[in-house]
Amino acid sequence: MADRPIRVLLVDDHQVVRRGLRTFLEVQDDIEVVGEASDGAEGVARAEELRPDVVLMDVKMPGTDGIEALRRLREHANPARVLIVTSFTEQRTVVPALRAGACGYVYKDIDPDALAAAIRSVHAGHVLLQPEVAGALLAQDDSPGGTGRGTTLTEREREVLGLIADGRSNREIARALVLSEKTVKTHVSNILMKLDLADRTQAALWAVRHGLTD
């Protein structure tokens, strides 16, 4: 499995953008473009059909947009990791996309090599929070889980949560804290339950907002 290329689905309403992404990604030895879609609804259908590892998703598309597509993928329990690739930087776009389940948010003017690195990062289980995105999260004041809920976390859970926000996988957290992966998984489950959060992405957003990152 380690030698299998990362299977990527492209979802964008602009054919030129999809063509450009495909042209670049097809020269990457460890990335394979398995399909394309021109809107969110088609993207969800293709994701169900192709079961990609990573979906590159635009936000603003006619018909079903990227945020609604993210919600539908979550409803279907599709395991694909979604990386938003868009030209929209407004807070009202960034925050809902990440809350809906995106694992990262990058802009269309990103350096091609940085995009390939971002795909590898989210595929590895990391949450990709660029500085501008973190700033948007800090600026908004209605993120899930109130500050008071954080007081119910143990010191160890706060350490784990901070490492989740740094983009660490369970294995990396276990190594950093000298714990077993099973223990880390238990801590992560407890964190999500105590903060009433749905997944690691929301946990990372909560940690950024409440100052648990460096």
**Category from helices, strands and their pairing:** alpha/beta
The averaged pLDDT comes out at 84
Which strands sit side by side, in order, in the main sheet? 2-1-3-4-5
- Kindly report the oligomeric state of this protein: single chain
The helicity comes to 40-55%
Instruction: Pick out the low-confidence regions.
Output: 141-147
Structure annotation, total helices: 10
- Give the total of beta strands: 5
Distance between the termini: 34 Å
Query: Outline, from the CA principal axes?
Result: globular
Q: What share of the residues does DSSP label as strand, in percent?
A: 5-15%
Salient structural properties:
10 helices, five-stranded parallel beta sheet, alpha/beta, 214 residues
Q: Could you characterize what this model shows?
A:
The chain has 214 residues and is α/β, with parallel strands linked by helices. It is built from 10 helices and 5 strands, in the order βαβαβαβαβαααααα. α2 runs parallel beside α3 (66-75), α7 crosses α10 and α8 packs across α9. The longest helix is centred in the last third of the chain and has 15 residues, at 181-195. The chain is globular.
Give the gist of this structure.
The chain has 214 residues and is of the alpha/beta class.
Question: How does the SSE layout of this entry go?
Answer:
Blueprint: E1 6-11, H1 15-25, E2 31-37, H2 40-50, E3 54-57, H3 66-75, E4 81-86, H4 91-99, E5 104-107, H5 112-123, H6 131-139, H7 155-165, H8 170-177, H9 181-195, H10 200-209
Parallel strand pairs: 1-2, 1-3, 3-4, 4-5
